[in-house]
Amino acid sequence: MRKTYGKVLPGMKLNDLSGKLIVVEGTDGAGRTTQINLLKTWLEEQGHAVLDTGMTRSMLAGEGIRRAKEGNNLGRVTQSLFYATDFVDRLENEIVPALRAGFVVLTDRYIYSLMARAIVRGMDAAWIRSIYSVALVPDAVIYLRIGVDELIPRVIFSRGFDYWESGMDVFPGQDMYESFRSYQSALLAEFDKLSVEYHFETVDASSDVKTVFAELQKKVMRILEGDSRKEFVSKLYEQVAEMSQLRTEAIFAAIPREMQRTDLELLLRSAAANEASGNGRNVA
Amino acid sequence: MNTGNNLRIGPFEIFFPVTQVLEKPRQNGGQQFPGKLFVVEGIDGSGKSTQLSLLHKWLESKGYGVVFSTWNSSPLVKDTTKLGKKKKMLTPATFSLIHATDFADRIERSILPLLKAGAVVLCDRYIYTAFARDVARGMDSKWVRELYGFAMKPSVAFYFRVPLETAIGRLVTARDGFKFYEAGLDLGLADDPTESFRLFQGRIIQEYEKMIPEFGLTVIDATLPVEVQQAQVRQIAKTHLDRARELRVRP
């Protein structure tokens, strides 16, 4: 049975959440998105159904947050709660249903980023923790860690400094470079604290993409090994085969006797036999 | 970490730490600010908005700088709330959170600065509305109280107590039909909107009754004539304003 960090939302059943919840955390520019895309493709190739989700992607609040961030009047408490709304909407409508359907859920950031950001903005740690006590405990938190000094060149030579990523709302007196440095250092310190408390699996994200990915693959493989769903999936295949057999029989039962000698019958029979045996052998 | 009324973390100062509302409720919470905060609470049809607008007029006539703030009105958040309600996307949890977000924006952007500046702020519905509705929807009562831990305690919170049937009688004549979330139709208590409204508001009344001792709400009998209720409201407001003469806006 899956657990939450303390409180269970009304109507949320924690049994039968057989999928795996894998969190990829890290500061801005640590390469989370790249790695998640690689992981998703790799897992799908292996036959896993994958849902990837991330911050501000909720149907409910994603657009609202984007619009609110365009202006300069999004307060600290409001910001924290808007993100919490976005998170809970995705938790209830994406993450939990996907886990129930046996998916591997890859989430780009989770409550830890949201907590770190709120705490760095001076919010009370107990307050923000209490809000996120409704979150599910994931199967693993992979933390892509990168120091500020390695991070800065990455950001400069890709998309440049961004107002919110630089924490300009937190350090308004500083220029963007200074602000970025102060803000990301504060976030990093907060992440390091959280990593102990929430048992993050830390990966050095300053290496190249391939090395980091190999490291991630190892960790993810370990999570998916010993997965009780392997048995479940093979049973499911058996059931599907059985159902398709029954369906074929039903189709033939429905066809009037005089029509059964037609070419159509022969055609259907051979097609159905192929489908049921599943190996494409021609028995017509 | 908690030093006096405010909480300091590094260079930041938080004006309303969580613990103050939860564990150490400030009986005169509004007092660290020069302004005053009066809020009205009660179910729909209790007549609270009428009473608040009469108080508003009286305060203005007395020369106070008065500002009015209604529930669910943040320009930053209301489109999201509207979307959620229109598409019926809201669960009890997201209903709770989006209303808290709206409230936070109003607190940060208007209510807090106004109180610091010495205004009299009037709120039609406050955190107690959220506590009543969210808990009636099945949210954990402690979780919701902590969620609103950033709110300051009002100078006075008036609760307009009215029997359910009286309120429904007033509403049925005043409008045609109830809205989906207003009637608690998301909870599936009943198919008929009026019946669902009755059941849902019944739960809300129960929650309000629990909060009277918990938060020291000032109960006004909302079955009394409007004038009598208003006289009571003004008298109570006056005792708070007497101690704050300097709030008056000089002509």
Description:
The complex is a heterodimer of chains A (about 280) and B (about 250). Chain A is of the alpha/beta class. Chain A is about 55% helix and about 10% strand. Chain A has a 5-stranded parallel beta sheet with strand order 2-3-1-4-5, with helices on both faces. The two termini of chain A are about 50 Å apart. Chain B is built from 9 helices and 8 strands. Chain B is of the alpha/beta class and about 250 residues long. At the A-B interface, helix 2, helix 3 and helix 5 of A face strand 3, helix 3, helix 4 and helix 6 of B.
Topology readout:
The complex is a heterodimer of chains A (284) and B (251).
Chain A: E1 20-26, H1 32-45, E2 50-54, H2 62-70, H3 76-100, E3 104-108, H4 111-120, H5 125-131, E4 140-145, H6 148-156, H7 176-197, E5 201-204, H8 209-224, H9 229-254, H10 263-277
Parallel strand pairs in A: 1-3, 1-4, 2-3, 4-5
Helix pairs in contact in A: 1-8, 3-4, 4-7, 9-10
Chain B: E1 2-3, E2 6-9, E3 12-14, H1 18-22, E4 36-41, H2 48-61, E5 66-70, H3 78-86, H4 92-117, E6 120-124, H5 127-136, H6 141-147, E7 156-161, H7 164-174, H8 193-215, E8 218-221, H9 226-242
Parallel strand pairs in B: 4-6, 4-7, 5-6, 7-8
Antiparallel strand pairs in B: 1-2, 2-3
Helix pairs in contact in B: 2-9, 3-4, 4-5, 5-8
